[in-house]
Each structure stands twice: as structure tokens, then as C-alpha cells.
Amino acid sequence: MLRETLVAGALALTTGVVAVSARPSQAEPAPGTASVPGATVLHYDAAALTGAFPHPAAAREAFSAPLPAPRLSDQEIAVYALRDPSALGPLSIGSPARGALRNGVQMPEGPLWHVVEPARSYGAPEAIASIGRAIETVARELPGGPVLYVGQLSAEHGGYLRPHRSHQSGRDVDLGYYYQGGTGWYARANAKNLDRPRTWALVRALASDPNVEAIFIDRSVQLLLREYALSQGVDRTELDEKIFEGTKRGRPTLVRHEWGHLTHLHVRFRCPDAVETGRRAAPVLARLGKISPAFAPRVAKGQPRARSTAATSAGSSGVVLGSKRPTT
Q1: Pick from 281, 284, 306, 298: which is nearest to 72 by CA?
Q2: Which pTM was predicted?
């Protein structure tokens, strides 16, 4: 009887919700995960993403953990929103510059990095995993280097995070550069102090990740990294047409110049699962008063349904070209 009552209320709330095809799941509910009888439960190992890792092998194992997927029907999403929104899994809602985060994961400390402000280091698990994999790749290729500083991601529930224009929906992170002579944070990178081999390895690892949407690096640092990559035999056309914006501002490359990124690089992730689930849950959560209605725009009848971020093909290289410049 309780389920029927909840579903009836949920269906009333889902008016205007954009429906998408739910992907079937055979996963069993994780121990301790809230569930509704007869409903599909998102299954992922959040504990593996939030623990401390004593060595790189443990980090690799943790960051290869299954991530959440938008497997729920609209009806099930509405039921969870009524009973236990945490059971919906991570939700990246709205845009990086005007959004919210629900059920995010805090970036853990690790042997290869240091989290500067843990209270401002929440993100979608897909973003957390991408950060860990990229840093671990650098350490594997060039062992013996310093730890990397991981700056701010998002607040626990997203929203405005001073002084950023973005960082609102769990899909952005500020990462330090690698420096000659050891660890540094928020130091102005230049030809004398930049550890070009490790910083280029970091950029290359991020560029190969389909989850990475854009990287913001000061133009002067881009030119240093491009020069180093050329010295290592990297194809000039690949660097100039897909990776670095260089001196030609506005080109649709992965790495773009943005003022304020001489001391750190800024990475924006796609996080398709958290974005898609957030998009579908937002109208219900807004009607329940749990998020701002501004994050849940209504879709008029007869209007084409919005394409899922998850449906966007990132390609094998992870480099996706686009003309619109996101805010940082």
C-alpha cells in the first residue's frame, strides 16, 4: 500500500519530466542502500572513492570501482525523491556556472596528491575518478615526483563557491602544476620553475580521458608545454588542431586560455551519468522544494526532448571539439 501511495504521488510530480530510455541493470542493491520494492537500485562503491589510499595500487583499484548510472525510470526517480533522495546517487544539476550538487563524493587524500580544502572538494564520482586516474598515470610514467595539489571542486551541495564563476555542480576542479624542485601550490608557472615533463604527462592523461570536456591553462604555460611536447616527437598537427589553443584564441581546442590560470589549471568534466540523472531528477526535486526551480526548466509539450550528455560521443581520444566557450 505504501508503494502504491508513493507512486501515485510521484506520478503527479513527474508532469513535465523529460523521459529517456532507462538502461537495464542486473546489479543487486548494495548493503545499506535504501531501496523501494520492485525498483532498480543504483549500485556503486562510494566507500572505495572516499577512503584513504596507502599506495598507488590501492588508488588504482579504488578508482576503477563501478560508477553510478542513470538506470532508474522516471517513476522510480520520483519515488526516491519522495522517500530518500540520497538513494538516487550523485546528481549534477544545472550548469557548472549555475547549478547544484547532490549526493556528491568528497575528494579523498592520497599518496600522490594533497587536497587543499577538503570542505570545498566535493564532486561527481566520475570527476573524482578521472582526477585520481590522471595523477596516478603521471606517477606511473614518471615515478619519484612530488605530490600534486588538488584545489577546489565544489561545495558539498554545490552552488556558488567564492571566488569562482563555475565550480557549482561537481564537475570542475583546480589542479596545481608540477614544479621543478618539489611541491608547490598557487605559484606562477614559468620556464624556470615548471616541471614540463610531468605537467605535460598530466595534460596528456586528461586529454585521453573521454570524461574531460575542457582544460583551462594560461597561454604562456600552454606554449611551454607545446614546446616540450614537440621536443618529444608529438605530432604538431595534433597539438595545434586538437590540444592547445596557443596564440589563436577562440579555436575549438581542448586546452584553452583563460585569465587567472597561470598558477593552476582548471579541468571541467562531462560526468554524463551524474548529469543525466540530475537532469531527470531536477523537476521532481524542484517541486518538492529541495532545489531551486531555476535548475529544472520545464519542457513544453511538443518540444523536442533534450539530448542526454551521456549520448554525446567523446571519441577514443577524449578530445571533443566545440565552439562554445564554457565559463571557469
Answers
A1: 281
A2: 0.73
